[in-house]
Amino acid sequence: MSSILTTLSNAFFHHASWKGYWEPVVQRFVPAWRDGLYRAQVKDVSMLNKNTTALTLAPDKQWPVHIGGQHIGLTLEINGRLITRVFTVASDPLTLKQTGTIRLITRIKHDGLLTPLIPALENEQWVNISAPQGAFTLPRHSKSTVMIAGGSGITPFIAMLKALTIDNANPRAITLYYFAKENEHVLHDELALIAKTLPSFSYHLLTRACHGDAEHYLTQHPNADWLVCGPAPLYRQVVDVAEIANSDVYSEHFGAPPMLTSNTDSDTFELRHNTKVLEVSSEQTLLTQLQAKDIPVNYGCGIGICHQCQCVKKKGIVKDTRTGALSDSAEQLIQLCVSQPMSDLELEI
Amino acid sequence: MMNYDKLATQLDAVKHDVKQSLGQRDADYIRRVILAQRLCEWSGRILIMLGFIQPLLWVIGVLSLAVAKIIDNMEIGHNVMHGQYDWMNDKHINSRRYEWDIACDGSSWNRVHNYEHHTYTNIIGKDRDFGYGLLRLSNDFRWRVKNLWQFATYIVLSVLFQWGVSYHEMAAERVFFGKKKENRKNTMTHSELKRRFFSKGARQVVKDYVLFPLLAGPLFLWVLAGNLIANLLRNLWTSTIIFCGHFTGDVQTFKQEDCENETQGQWYYRQALGSSNIEGGNLFHVLTGHLSFQIEHHLFPDIPAKRYREIAPKVKAIFKEHNIHYNTGSFARQYASVVKRILRFSLP
Questions:
Q1: Which of A14, A56, A226, A274 has its CB 3.0 to 4.6 Å from that of A43, i.e. a possible disulfide?
Q2: ipTM score assigned to the predicted complex
Q3: What is the dihedral angle through the alpha carbons of A215, A220, A226, A229, rounded to the nearest 10 degrees?
C-alpha cells in the first residue's frame, strides 16, 4: 500500500512521498508531524549544572526502541527554520518501556543554534526526533571493558550501564574513567547507584588538571575492549595508546570533526552544479562553502550523522573529514558536511 | 545622471532588512497556503465527480480545481522554486525538490526562468521570455508577415500556456527545429531535455485526462471536461498575469552591449524598467503569486513573495528619489496596455 502511494505521489503529485504531500495539512491537527521523522513530547527540562541540561522526551509509540549507546537527531523548528543536532540517548531502553520516556543530556554551546534553546523548551511541547542510529553499543562478549568518557561523552555509558543493572547476562569487569572540567561531572548519584547494583563496576571522576592524561589509566588495562566517547583529542589519544596496549577501541566522537587538510596545502577546484560553476577550496567542507555562496542545500547535524545534506557526486574525488578516506571518482552518494574537495567536482544537489 | 551606487545601496538595504526578519510567520504562511491548495484541489476533484447530482457542483468543482492549480503554480511553485523558502531547511518546501502541477519540468523552469530570464531580463537576444520567440513586442525585432496575426498567436499561446512554458527551453535549444544558436552553453543534452519534457507532460496528461476520469467511471467525460477547463482557466490566468507584468507599454528592452560589466545598481535599474505591477486586493495578490508585485519580484526574486507588499512603498519611494518610473496600475489599465502593445507591433 505504502509503495503504491509513493509511486502515485511521485508520478502525479510530484512529491517524494505521500506523507510529504499531506504534511502541511496533517500538521494542522497533529503538531510537529513530519515526513521521515518521529514526534516526541517534552516532559521535563532541567539543568544538571550551569552548562548541561537534561531533556526528558516521550517519543511516539511508533519510535523504534534504542539500544544503550545509540544516538538520535533532535529537530526543532526555530523561528521557521528546521535545525537538527545529534545527541546520545542517556537512558536505557527499559526506562522507555516503563515510563515511556527517553532522556538527552546536552552540553549547551552558547554560540550554538540549537542547544541554547533547550532550557527554554516548554513541557508538553512537540519536537521531532529521528530513529535511533549508531553502532556504539556494549560489545556482547567481552571479559573486560574500559569506558573513557570526556565531558558530555558520559551519556552513552550511562545508557549502557543502566541497561546492565537490569539485565546483566554477561557479567564482566567494567571500569569507567570520566574526564570533565572541575565541578562539571554530572550524574554522580546515578553512577553511585549503578556501582552499588553492579559489583564488577567501578568508576573514577577525573579532571585533566589534577589527574593528567588518560594514558596513565589506560595502560593498566591491556587486552581489554576500550570504549571512548568524547572530544576528538581524547579519542586520538586513546587510539594511540590502544595500539601499544593491543586493545580494541570502539568509539563515538561528536562535536566538530577534525578537519584534514591535503598534503599540498590549499588547492582550489571547480565545482559544477546545475548551470553553475563555482570555485571551491580544499580547506573547508563542501557544506560550509556552498552555504557561504548562498547555494540552496538542506543540512542537518553538520557532522556526518543525519544524512540530510546527502547528495549525488557525479564526478570527482572528495575526502571524508572524519576518516581521511578518499572517495573514488565515480558517481556516489556523499554527505556535504564531511566532504572536503580533492579534485574538480560535479554534484547533483 | 543616475546614481547607480546609491540605488544599489538603498535597494540592498531593503533586501537585507527583509532577510533579517524572515521567520516563523513566513514559514507558517507558506504552509497555510499549501493547506489551502490541498483543500481546493481535493474538494474540486470530488465536486467534479458529483456533477451528476447537481451540475452546479461540477461548476464549483472546476473553479475550485482551477484555483488549486493557480495557487500551486503561482504562490507555491513559482515562489518556492525561486528559493524563497530555502532558509526553512524543509525537505519538501525548497527549490531543489519542489515540482509543480503543470506540464513544465521544474528543473527546466529553473534554468530558463530563474537563471536566464531573471539574470538577463529584457536583454534582446539573451532573455527569450521577451516575446517568447513568437511575438514581436518592440522595434528591436524585424517585422515579419507572421506578426500581422500575432494577436491570434498570443491567444493560442495563452490557451496552451502550460505547454508553451514546457516547450520553452527546447525551443531555445532548437531541439526539434531551427539552426543551433552559438551563444547558448548546453548544460543538458537534447535527449535528456526530450526525456524530461515527455515524462512530465505525459504524467500530467495521464493524471488529468486518464486517471481521474477513469476513477469517475461512467462520469469519465464529465471529469475529463472539468479537468480540461480547470487547466484552461489556469493557463489563461497565468499567461495574463505574466503578460501584465512584462509587456505593458512602458516596459523597456536592452541591448547586450549595454549590459556588459553591469554593476549591481545598473542591474537593479534594468529590472525596474523591465517590469510592471498590478494593483488589487489581498486575494488577487495571492492568486497572482504576488507577481502583481513584478517590480519587487524582479529586484528581489528570492525574498518570500508575501513580503513584497510591505516593501513596495519603500521601493516606490526609492524609485521616486531616483526619478525611475514605478510602473503600476489597475488590472484593466495594465491589460489594455499589453493588448495595445501586441497590436501595435504586429504592424511594421
A1: A56
A2: 0.91
A3: -40
